[in-house]
């Protein structure tokens, strides 16, 4: 029996299925948007412990995550209220749905370039740690952002043009490759710096290397999660014609297109939830306190013996290689150092 195109579309992607998809997406997006907002606030309060350029790039990235999830949540909530009557909805609802979807797509296109810029900034901070502490390459960062905006405009302007699908996909593949290889290079340079020995370097270089380690503890997990999401949606688009954005044109030819889209979107949401939790675990005092490592208080305090003195003076250095106690302080200075530690620990 021959069916019309409208019957095929209603069977594969009917209004009831789209309505349920919008509701489910809204339920997942509203908490995610709140978590990204909390993560942005938590990082903003601690931004001064990092280099200003890293703080700018990473805070901008968190704002993009928050904005994209918020616009998509507003779009899905608005669509859920109208359901089957979306085409007959008031003009204000049409504008809300269409413009929120446009903003979401534009921001989603801009996230990979900003991640690549952030990784490259960390590569320079690690490779040139000797003088990077006081460097402010704002002009170079501005040029990089302008170039990223041009590529994003090309992707966004040609998102509905069939002949431009391959160039747009190539741009996304390019950023995925840049992020992956830059991350590998960053880890290699950081490992080389750690093996070379920070104690032998100048104080400013040791300070910059330690700052890099703090930044990488939050930057690398976020980059890995986001790059994994990019690669997943690129592979799903190439092999299964299921991109990150819903394309109802595939509903005419693919009977299970909506099912595939739901599966990949669900995996993407689950992975995205890791990003704000990583930030909150590092910076927020209210989140994940039970998971953080705390010092164990001794049940029986250990005090230094008053009648004995150490037979030899031990040289003690901090993480920067600075001597805290040694032969220059003598046995009395070393004993005072240990008594100070005893007072702090007990």
TrEMBL record:
Topology relative to the membrane: Multi-pass membrane protein
PANTHER family: G PROTEIN-COUPLED RECEPTOR, SERPENTINE RECEPTOR CLASS EPSILON-13-RELATED
Keyword Protein biosynthesis: no
Pfam families for this protein: Sre
InterPro entries reported in the protein's UniProt record: 7TM_GPCR_serpentine_rcpt_Sre, Serpentine_rcpt_epsilon
Subcellular location: Membrane
Transmembrane segments: 20-44, 56-83, 103-125, 137-156, 171-190, 262-283
Keywords, sorted A to Z: Membrane, Receptor, Transmembrane, Transmembrane helix
Predominant localisation class: membrane
Protein name: G protein-coupled receptor
GO biological process, one term: sensory perception of chemical stimulus
UniProt GO cellular component terms: membrane
Domain of life: Eukaryota
Organism: Caenorhabditis elegans
Lineage: Eukaryota, Metazoa, Ecdysozoa, Nematoda, Chromadorea
Family, as annotated: Belongs to the nematode receptor-like protein sre family.
